[in-house]
Specification:
The chain is built from 14 helices and two strands. By secondary structure, the chain is an all-alpha fold. It has helices spanning 2-23, 51-73, 83-104, 106-109, 112-123, 125-143, 174-181, 188-217, 219-222, 226-256, 265-288, 307-329, 333-337, 352-368; strands at residues 38-39, 292-293.
Length: 373
């Protein structure tokens, strides 16, 4: 639902911006020197020197797509919890291809529509990746509340503690999980609270996404309108500030989870590494976005086009985003977090009869597959 809302909002604001752009008389004041400074584009505009860097990052993001396809094909690693990561990989492959094209075309380099699109595309993925982290955090916390009485279908929710090890002989974690389950009291009330908290976190990240869409989609308007330029700067700062606060809050929840049952060091380390990458992108944006420029092609400090500014952009924003995506797509998330394909998507536990039916169905299917002797 959050993804659908973001797509709809993105379409509305970008379409609105493009229509407004088409009704304006042609103007080059945002290319040449202007008396109306506007927010500097994050990452600057692609110069000739950006060609090979753009090709490199396009290749890096593209290299993650086959990994996701392989994971999706294999039923033991098939998972959709990290859906935002693969969307980011696909989108970044496209935008870096566009940046490579822009670097070879002086006309496209200063295209207001393309610049606006790239600003939106650069601004949002690290927030959407944090959504994936929240989904995995939910699996960790919900799993910790499941005792012997929990019989929820593992394909709909994190792996049920009641399932015997013989039903999951390929999982390297089944022995430890089974041993812990015998000593853990099932706690549906706490499980419901954890789900409510993660739902609120997802709404919080949506609150960070909406200002990011609004501010960056109106970037074209800020090039020749001081009021719109101020709106762009404020909304971009609101978006990144909310995102950074939530990322740090989620990191605190991950650290807290270390003492929960069934939570292993690899869970905490992996999620903290991803959140560190997300925080790097947010901090970079907060430190850079106060700059203004009078021309997209300006090489003045603060324009985003100097070699130092380009280097910090690629390292602390684009590379950190790639690392976050790789950490979600390369490891076998399903096995590590012992979750089903969709993660913990339920708002509440199913009725006992449905749980019992799910357990019997799984046992019957396992017997037919020869997994239970």
């Amino acid at each position: 639902m959050a993804i659908l809302s973001v797509v709809v909002l993105f379409g509305l604001f970008v379409t609105s911006t493009f229509f407004q752009s088409s009704t304006r008389p042609p103007s080059l004041q945002w290319v040449m020197s202007s008396d109306n400074p506007f927010p500097s584009p994050v990452g600057g505009v692609p110069m000739t020197s950006d060609f090979w860097t753009s090709i490199l990052f396009s290749s890096l993001y593209f290299s993650l797509i086959p990994i996701f396809v392989v994971r999706l094909y294999n039923k033991h690693s098939r998972v959709i919890v990290s859906i935002n990561a693969i969307i980011t990989a696909i989108e970044r492959t496209i935008i870096f291809s566009l940046r490579a094209w822009q670097s070879c075309s002086p006309v496209e380099r200063i295209s207001p529509a393309l610049t606006t699109y790239l600003q939106v595309s650069i601004a949002l993925p690290y927030i959407s990746i944090a959504h994936d982290v929240v989904a995995l955090l939910r699996c960790m916390y919900v799993n910790s509340t499941k005792g012997q009485a929990s019989l929820i279908d593992p394909q709909d929710s994190p792996v049920a503690a009641s399932m015997s090890s013989s039903m999951h002989p390929l999982s390297p974690f089944h022995s430890a999980s089974l041993h812990l389950s015998d000593d853990i009291h099932d706690d549906p009330k706490k499980r419901g609270f954890y789900r409510w908290v993660t739902d609120m976190l997802n709404l919080g990240f949506l609150a960070a996404t909406i200002p990011g869409i609004i501010g960056n989609a109106h970037y074209r308007g800020g090039m020749d309108n001081e009021s719109t330029a101020n709106e762009v700067m404020i909304t971009r700062y609101i978006s990144s500030a909310i995102a950074l606060f939530l990322i740090l809050f989620v990191a605190a929840l991950v650290v807290r989870a270390r003492k929960l049952p069934k939570v292993e060091p690899v869970h905490v380390t992996l999620l903290l590494a991803i959140l560190a990458c997300n925080a790097s992108s947010a901090i970079f944006r907060l430190l850079f976005m106060y700059h203004r420029t009078t021309s997209l092609t300006s090489m003045a400090p603060g324009s985003g086009n100097t070699p130092l500014e380009k280097a910090t952009f690629y390292i602390f924003h684009m590379l950190s985003d790639w690392l976050a995506v790789a950490l979600l797509l390369v490891p076998n998330i399903r096995a590590i977090f012992k979750t089903g394909m969709w993660g913990d998507w339920r708002a509440i536990d199913p009725p006992p009869k449905e749980q019992e039916w799910a357990r019997k169905r799984k046992e019957a299917k396992a017997r037919r597959s020869g997994l239970i002797v």
